[in-house]
Amino acid sequence: xxTSVAPASTGNTTASxxxxxATATPAGxxxxxxLLNFAVVYLIWGSTYxxxxxxxxxxxxxLSGGARxxxxxxxxxxxxxxxxxxxxxxxxxxxxIQWGLATIVGGLLFLGGNxxxxxxxxxxxxxxxxxxxxxxxxxxxLLEWVRPGGHRPTxxxxxxxxxxxxxxxxxxxxxxxxxxxxxxxxxxxLLGSLLWAxxxxxxxxxxxPRNALRNSGTQMLTGGALLLVAGTLGxxxxxxxxxxxxxxxxLGWLYLVTFGSLLGFTSFAWxxxxxxxxxxxxxxxxxxVIAVFLGWLVANEPVGPRTIAAAAVxxxxxxxxxxxxxxx
Length: 328
What we know:
By secondary structure, this protein is mainly alpha-helical. The protein has one domain. Helices cover 73% and strands 0% of the residues. The chain contains 13 helices and no strands. The protein has helices spanning 11-23, 31-55, 61-87, 96-120, 126-133, 136-146, 155-172, 183-202, 212-233, 247-274, 277-280, 283-298, 305-327. α3 (61-87) packs across α10.
């Protein structure tokens, strides 16, 4: 179709153009930013497994997690205010309703999801914890299904979920004895993955701050504060001895603040506002593969044929899951 229009255009042509414009499908977010943010969530969040391993050597879980998110949240809010001043814009003040929503999202994601994992890994083996947390996409699909106006998952989507779970089971292995699994830890992990899925859906609310930095900053600040309260109530201050915190723990904590929170969660929040939630949830299958690779590369952890086979199954599950959501 020519980009130039003759001055004597007919009424039918004009009407057709108007109708075509009115019925055109709204353009989605640019492909470049989508791929970049997916790469950040896939790769950086996968690397945080190794960082958390070093942090928990000499730091209590809830207090270190709370401090991580409070610091990252304050940095993001300061960056948002600086960016407003640089542009000469008055900025978008965070309303009380937005603070309330941010507290709900931060509580679900960080206190409920992240806090549950950090607490449970004191009682449950990390492999079992990874497998239980990885069912989060299943919770997400089910929550989207049962909500008012929700969408029924396609067969390809469900097949991708089942295949991904099977791949993770192959990756982490199966415990030798059922009696060795702590029931309380299992229940907390299942609840934590459900709360993270619920928080991921609430985070899509259009009533949250539109500015990406301010949106992520409010959620991390409130969620981190709730983690600090939980750590205080749990008596973790008696376990905190800054004089004996190892260098590896400090470096791991700084990495979690800068890359895991400032960069990783900001990309995650952007994706949740611009891409289908079930597609974003595929990071739950990719992150363990990244974690295993970095463990082999950095910590000399063995990677055998079973690990390679599991990685192939997981990647296939992500492809199947994505195709299923696209057709749905």
